[in-house]
Design a protein that fits this description.
The chain is of the alpha/beta class. It is built from ten helices and seven strands. The chain is globular and about 50 Å long. Bound molecules: NADP nicotinamide-adenine-dinucleotide phosphate (NAP). The site of NADP nicotinamide-adenine-dinucleotide phosphate has 27 residues, from helix 2 and helix 7.
């Protein structure tokens, strides 16, 4: 698999692709695939150095206009920024990717940290989807991707609030997929399972995984989502995750699912 696959999305939606949390991980993979597809890019992240370096790299590799928009998505002024971006650029594709994942017992995480997670995972997603998506709807073309999580399908111990915020993104994308069908604007929620990025490494989650939790690379997650956009409302990118998610969220009683998840996370954390 390469990031040079012609996805035909730039031909379908036109303009710039705005990717949040673009500096690293899954967001960076989205940016690379979209640059290869011919999109000019708006790379939104709070990490200035990495974002600027990525914009330079992708501009020269693909001869596109890639700009870094350094900002904190939890900033209450995001609405004004988003409106400026929409006024300044025709945004054909929006990837709501940035997210905070806090792994710990619910009450050991401060309320402030939970609220910041809510602001980034839900409020920023709502603000961007509303402001950027409304301009797409007026033009009659565009694509909106919301990066949810497999944990959003069932809830998760130790990721209680994170999983709840991911359920928000999942349901927002599903409603929009249905409501906007036939309008030229597509929506998709992508629900990755465990993916090898910095937070997973920092949380020490990638080791000693049970057989039913595969670990994904960020590039196939992003590519899978871009291929699925316009074809279906949701995607769990990896086959192994689709099987586990089907079993855990549709077959087993919820209390069994949550017990299995609790034991798995405790084992992965060495507890
Ligand atoms: N990795 C997984 O296993 C997995 C599984 C399911 C879903 N997901 C979802 O996939 C998405 C990407 O995750 P990832 O693992 O690729 O994470 P990552 O490697 O940490 O990348 C996320 C990027 O978003 C940026 N960001 C975070 N908060 C921000 C804010 N307030 N304003 C602007 N930028 C901000 C981060 O910058 P800083 O690091 O400087 O804060 C980072 O560059 C998230 O929504 C996550 O919930 C991940």
């Amino acid at each position: 698999m390469t990031d040079s696959e012609n996805l035909g999305l730039h031909a379908r939606y036109g303009g710039y692709a705005l990717v949040t949390g673009a500096a690293r991980g899954i967001g960076r993979a989205f940016a690379s695939h979209l640059a290869a597809d011919g999109f000019d890019l708006l790379l939104v992240d709070c990490d200035g150095e990495e974002t600027i370096a990525l914009a330079e790299e992708l501009s020269s590799a693909h001869r596109i206009d890639a700009r870094s928009l350094i900002c904190d998505l939890a900033d209450p002024g995001l609405e004004h920024k988003a409106q400026e971006w929409v006024n300044g650029f025709e945004i054909g594709l929006l990837v709501n990717n940035a997210g905070i994942s806090l792994l710990d017992p619910f009450f050991q995480i401060s309320l402030d940290a939970h609220l910041r997670t809510l602001d980034v995972n839900c409020r920023a997603t709502l603000v961007l989807t509303y402001i950027v998506g409304k301009a797409m709807a007026a033009r009659g073309r565009g694509g909106i991707v919301i990066v949810s999580s497999a944990s959003g399908l069932s809830g998760s111990p130790y990721f209680c609030h994170y999983a709840a915020t991911k359920g928000y993104g999942l349901n927002l994308a599903c409603g929009l997929w249905s409501e906007l069908r036939g309008s030229g604007v597509d929506a998709l929620a992508v629900c990755p399972g465990m993916t090898d990025t910095q937070p997973v490494q920092d949380q020490n989650l990638g080791k000693d995984l049970p057989f039913y939790i595969p670990i994904n690379g960020p590039a196939p997650v992003a590519l899978g989502a871009l291929r699925a956009l316009g074809k279906q409302p949701t995607l769990i990118p990896a086959l192994g995750d689709r099987v586990s998610a089907g079993l855990l969220s549709k077959v087993l009683p919820r209390r069994w699912t949550l017990s299995i998840m609790k034991r798995s996370i405790e084992k992965m954390r060495g507890g």
